[in-house]
Amino acid sequence: MKKNLVKIVCALILFLPIFNIRASVEIEAFCFIDNFTQLGQGPVGVWVYTVSNADPEYSNGVLYIEEKEKGMYTVSVQLKNGTLTGQDVEVDGNTIKFGMNIEGVERVLVELKVDGNLIKGEVYTSQGPLKIEGNRKLPPK
């Protein structure tokens, strides 16, 4: 019953036009979190992140990391202007690696290490490595 109520509330909130994009992304993250049962363990979850010295359109966003089947992971990166999909996702304990195509031209590699509710690592670009850090988005208590 509670799970259905959360889904209904999330659906209603996501379609109300009165929220700005930032609030919408945070609410979407909360709704996505409801699908996870083991928050705080490993890379699976929703992460709000920042990338130091990145172009403004790529400098922050929300990472959605999900285990679809045992050992099969998906990564989606929600940016201000759209969503990117992680490719060749590899998870080894608290470490996750994946690639992404930026604007269909540049391929970047992301390597992240999870420490509780913190995530950090590097994004390897053609201009050199960039630091990435983030926090797990936890549902309100």
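(ticket continues) Second input and output from the same batch:
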Amino acid sequence: MYTGPVGSASLVTQIHDYNVHVDRYDVFWMIPVRHNAVSVSMDGSQARLQVHNMDVFDDHDLANSLTQGLGLPTPPIPPVFPVPASVSFDVEWDGVLAMAEIENASQQFKGSFFSTGATISWSAEQKGFRFESDMPPDPKANLISVVGHEQNGVFFS
């Protein structure tokens, strides 16, 4: 979350950064969810992700998230200790706008991708602060959304 008008985001105007921390395998920004939190249509053109009250941290800003609370000298971002928080979100992808089949054998990558419409509603809560997005979500606020199925690396064949 940032102060200032939409589209003017910069590191020094960020006031909340909700995420899970790096795990013991050095994976970041990823966490398992319940199996029933995800649904995908058989043709892959529709999908939904619903998560309720996921425990996360508010690191205040991306700099503190990536430096484990140490901040940055330039631009000057003061160190901020993470605050326990929870987030909930409901993301829906629907309505195929375009489709692309991509294959790059030299990089062992291939996939089928659908450009779709999408909406998201979300909320965050921590001691002394709560945020809830506009309801219902505005589909016109979406810039681009893609749902796809890819194969890479050992799964390429």
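Agent notes: The chain has a mean pLDDT of 88. The helical segments are 62-66. Closing as not reproducible unless the customer responds.
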